[in-house]
């Protein structure tokens, strides 16, 4: 009997990064849900250096370390070269035979029935868009039935429906928090909005932004939200093992620290969070996990030695308190997913006072893992977190301080938020997410 399953292509743009992002989590989860819906899943990567005829060398090249995305200062040079670029690229299937040991990448790989690669296609697509204001066509050996781009990329597969996920419009809503060229960014959003068969987003807040700022008609946008899911082998790890892991990596006891995880960038509001934590004078330590991004030095300024001592208007007793607070903060650049899950489970509370989020998955991840949450009352977070988090004005340091003190001291509040959080996370279960996805795909398949 012939295989009647539909093939859906997703991109590996963020999946190819060594340290995952929220969009990488979105893409990985999407791949597994597509499989659960009964579709075949193809994934297109844009890794460099795969112009080889030999299948074994092709497989080796694919796993030969991630390649960083093109930096902004490289884009101009790419645009100059784009005069030689074709407006159509051909992808080649990567043979995954098992001859190359790839278990190191297993946590980052999505579900897939086929993997394709077109060398640097996403970076070159950006250059082509910059030069010609067009989307780059990508042709595959086996044409999919639908292409779902998990990020607003200037690429498309011709002769099939192309759906694009637009997570948020942070470069337009908070322009000072990103390095994007805002004129080019808005132009790309509008072009994708015109050319896409449909646009998917992840919250009603983001949907409103897409209508109001980009001008995409409301009927051409569907909010599917996201699903929150964590493999049982990490979620259900024995509590004693979790306690040993978190104490080994942090030196702190189980449920004995506050936790933030995510990119250290302006929209995450790290500077105010640290200031609020220091002002709270709680004895519970703070663990910050995340790689430094743009303007991270400014966000972490309060952790620098001598910052407060140089302020001649600060009393010596306050200086000593600040020094003590700094000693209770530790920062890790990165934690593998399995360890991160343990660190979330072991936290007394999760701090997520972000200035703006398209969805805010970390808040739901904490709820699923039964950790109480302090989060912002802005952007999508009120609709996603509901009444299951202690919400604060992210611009009000005193409000964040009060919330930290309250959560630290009130065991009943923590228990109440844990119970509410379990119920809130269930609203974003994989089953519900699949139903929303299926409703979108059924219109085009």
Indicate the CATH architecture of the largest domain: 3-Layer(aba) Sandwich
| Backbone CA Rg | 23 Å
Strand order of the largest sheet: 4-5-2-1-7-9-10-11
* Strand percent estimate: 5-15%
Largest sheet composition:
8 strands, mixed
CATH topology category name of the largest domain? Rossmann fold
Can you tell me the overall shape? globular
The rounded distance between the terminal residues' Cα atoms is 20 Å
**Percentage of residues in helical conformation:** 40-55%
Please tally the helical runs, counting DSSP H or I stretches of 4 or more residues. Answer: 18
CATH class of the largest domain: Alpha Beta
Q: What's the number of structural domains? A: 2
Architecture overview:
The protein has 445 residues and is an alpha/beta fold. The protein has helices at residues 22-36, 55-62, 72-81, 121-132, 170-173, 182-195, 204-214, 232-235, 239-250, 270-280, 296-299, 316-327, 337-345, 361-368, 381-385, 397-409, 411-426, 430-441, and strands at 7-11, 40-45, 88-90, 92-94, 114-117, 136-139, 146-149, 155-156, 162-165, 198-201, 221-223, 258-261, 286-289, 329-332, 349-352, 373-376, 390-392. The protein has 2 domains: 7-227 and 430-441, Rossmann fold; 232-426, Glycogen Phosphorylase B (Rossmann fold, 3-Layer(aba) Sandwich). Helix 1 links the parallel strand 1 and strand 2 (40-45). The chain is globular and about 60 Å long. It starts with 6 loop residues before the first strand and ends with a helix.
């Amino acid at each position: 009997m012939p295989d009647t399953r539909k093939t859906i292509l997703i991109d590996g743009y963020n999946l190819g990064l060594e340290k995952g992002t929220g969009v990488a989590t979105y893409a990985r989860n999407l791949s597994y849900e597509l499989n659960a819906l009964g579709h075949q899943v193809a994934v297109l990567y844009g890794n460099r250096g795969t112009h080889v005829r030999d299948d074994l060398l092709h497989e080796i090249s694919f796993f030969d370390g991630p390649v960083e995305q093109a930096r902004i200062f490289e884009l101009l040079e790419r645009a100059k070269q784009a005069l030689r670029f074709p407006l159509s690229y051909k992808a080649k299937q990567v043979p995954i035979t098992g001859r190359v040991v790839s278990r190191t990448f297993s946590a980052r790989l999505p579900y897939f029935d086929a993997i394709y690669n077109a060398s640097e296609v996403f970076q070159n697509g950006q250059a082509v868009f910059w030069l010609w204001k067009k989307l780059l066509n990508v042709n595959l050996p086996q044409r999919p039935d639908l292409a779902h781009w998990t990020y607003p990329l200037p690429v498309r597969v011709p002769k099939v429906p192309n759906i694009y996920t637009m997570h948020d419009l942070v470069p337009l809503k908070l322009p000072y928090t990103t390095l994007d060229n805002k004129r080019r960014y808005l132009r790309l959003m509008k072009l994708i909005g015109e050319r896409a068969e449909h646009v998917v987003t992840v919250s009603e807040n983001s949907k409103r932004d897409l209508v109001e700022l980009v001008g995409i008609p409301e009927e051409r946008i569907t909010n599917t939200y996201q699903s929150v899911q964590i493999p049982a082998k990490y979620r259900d790890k024995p509590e004693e093992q979790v306690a040993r892991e978190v104490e080994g990596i942090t030196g702190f006891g189980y449920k004995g620290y506050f936790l933030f995880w995510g990119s250290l960038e302006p929209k995450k509001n790290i500077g105010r969070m640290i200031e609020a934590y220091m002002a709270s004078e709680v004895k519970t330590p703070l663990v910050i996990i995340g790689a430094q991004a743009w303007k991270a030095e400014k966000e972490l300024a309060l952790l620098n030695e001598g910052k407060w001592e140089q302020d001649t208007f600060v009393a010596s007793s306050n200086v000593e308190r600040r020094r003590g607070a700094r000693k209770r903060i530790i920062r890790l650049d990165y934690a593998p997913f399995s360890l991160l899950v343990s660190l979330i489970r072991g936290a007394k509370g999760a701090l997520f006072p972000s200035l703006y989020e398209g969805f805010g998955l970390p808040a739901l991840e904490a709820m699923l893992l039964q950790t109480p949450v302090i989060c912002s009352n802005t952007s999508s977070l009120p609709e996603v977190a509901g009444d299951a988090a202690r919400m604060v004005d992210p611009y009000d340091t005193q409000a964040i301080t009060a919330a930290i003190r309250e959560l630290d001291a009130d065991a009943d509040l923590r228990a109440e938020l844990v119970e509410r959080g379990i119920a809130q996370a269930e609203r974003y279960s994989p089953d519900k997410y699949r139903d929303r996805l299926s409703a979108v795909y059924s219109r085009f398949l």
